[in-house]
Amino acid sequence: MEQNTTTALRWFESAALQGVVTAQFNLGYLYSTLKGKHRNFERAIHWYSKAAEQGHPTARFRLAMHYKRGVGVKANYVDSLRWALLALEVTKSETLPVKIRDFKDDLLENVPKSQIMKAVKIAKETTEA
Prior knowledge:
By secondary structure, this protein is mainly α.
């Protein structure tokens, strides 16, 4: 199994470095879910961010979850809500929007209004850029 994991990471990274958004997401996913020495939340955040910046909805949602929980990054509800809002804008899945909306609604209930407004502003600026 060790050889397969190392090989998979190498191939995904090769494609991710070339800008392949699906490879960037998959690499982030692998780094966040693998066991042992291969698990690396900071690398997961790096690759999720690359895919999210290119509009990958699940990468955006995963970033939202990581920012909410403070896994691989410092917990930040503004960034969590920002990525959740951006994920909702681009998802075409039938089930993902429900998960994202539930996640977003939970944030909206627990985050101060000033942080909500800041997240909405940042999300809007991101989509306009």
